[in-house]
Amino acid sequence: RRQEVESILPSLVAGTESLAGRGVTRAVSLAPGRPREAYAAAERAGCRLWAGPARDLVAAADAALVASGTATLETGLEGTPLAVVYRTGALNWYLDRRVVSLRTIGLVNIAAGGSRVPELLQDEASPRRIAEVAERLLFDPKERAEQQAYLEGLAEKLGGAGSAARVAREVLRVAARA
Known about the structure:
Blueprint lengths: L1 H6 L1 H12 L6 E3 L10 H5 L3 E3 L3 H7 L3 E4 L2 H9 L3 E5 L3 H10 L7 H6 L6 E3 L5 H13 L1 H12 L1 H4 L5 H15 L1
């Protein structure tokens, strides 16, 4: 989480600054374990800091820019239009791309079997590109409708209601035979 806050948050804040002038409220969910001071620059730039459950913030949002990880899937399951944002060190990125051969990295896209939400990775996670994507997520009716149509069916694609309980029962059944 420290790496995300330090390497991604400044670009997110800069990239969404023009939206503040259009009446958009920008909010940043505080990562557990990170000191509030780590978000001081975002707060000075007019972002509100959210200390409650991230799920509640996402549910209330019109759109979200989400650091890659399980949060992308959680955001998608809430039905909130989103973009995946990720940046890591150059060496880590190089090695990751050699070891992992996925076309997309966001879990919400992996579940789709392709790109259904924008992914801003490495150099693409620039303030300029973030601004472009955020603008589309908020104000392009076609972009919003396409994402929302996909996200509405996401839970079913992942097994629907009760899927976690079914998986747990199957794990217990297999473990009992071992």
